[in-house]
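We store amino acids, tokens; thus:
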Amino acid sequence: MLDLHNLAQQISEKRNMMLQKEKEIEENIQEVFNFLSFLDKQKVEKVLSKIPRKDEKNEILFCLPYYSNFNEFMKGFPCEVQTSYEVFAVDGSNTEIDRHISQPYYLLNIACVEITYDNENSNFNYQTYPYIYLDEELYSKKEAQAIKSSSEISRERQTKEYMAILEYVENSLPKSEIRLVLYDGNLIDWTQDRQGLRFGRRANLELERIFNVAKQKNVAVCGFISMPKNSIISNLYRIYNCEKMRIDCKECSREEKRNCEKIERIKDVFLFSDLKSGQHSNVFYTLGRAFDEFEDTDITFVYLATGYEIARIEIPVYVAKDEKWLKKCIGAIYHQCQVGFGYPISLTHAHEFSTISHQDKAAIENILLGVGDDILPYSAKKNNKVKRIV
């Protein structure tokens, strides 16, 4: 039972600290916004002169416009709303392993939604793919005696989602019409080695394989991130104002780091909060040091005012290379948000179809009662929780 009075006191104390940080952020936002609004080639060259070479350690990630239109860094662009396109959305859910029942298990449920829009009508289809794991399938490959962790199960779910996307793309015929795959979450793999040359714009190997096939089939695979927490856009200002000839954060004093961190805490969405509904930001890419060229499977991103929030859209370079194609994709995603009250309607459907309810779990556990030799359905601990004896 929660001591709400105690928690309320803790929240009050922490809220005061958060308000102080928010005040610091507000004091710096306009300064950063003004700098980025009047960005030019000379300022960018100064920044690039300070970043590490390929053989040096990556210190700070920052962003540049993909189309090199530095003078339009903070400009908002109107969406070219599309109403004729095909969208495929995938989402998944999973349960955790409850070791206090006689037959432990976990479930994955992957939902795929396909909607075709044209000027007269639309076509809607969906399919779900449930998976159940029992017995030896519950144990981690890392440690033979340990059951799988939540992160391992989530990774399995993500792999199944990727498999569904790959199947859709492989079965697609090349068409000139706009076709989107919408994925709920990042395409960029932030778990990779930070010192990798393409860290901050690289997908994992599974997605790179999908992108290579999708490029041939003229299918745009895009990631949609609701309420993004990224804080990279403002780093250009941090680097520009760094007094050192080359970035080396280890040499900075504690006070210098604190002043730098005040800028680092400015989330990207704060800087794009002036975007009107139906506008999107410039197209950006992320880097941390000098580089030669992009891979087609690298990721660019834009911020989109959906009418409810500022969302982040991640789009592979093979799409961004064709600016007209990219703008049509953004316009189709915005249309998805229009009909979905600020969030893509196809992803909303996929989420609903993938949800595993309490009733679903109860039905599965009733079926599993007949599996195995255990007499008791669950442990004494769980029995007391179910009966609420206290």
About this structure: The CA atoms of residues 140 and 148 lie 5 Å apart. The chain is about 40% helix and 20% strand. The first strand starts at residue 62 and ends at 65.
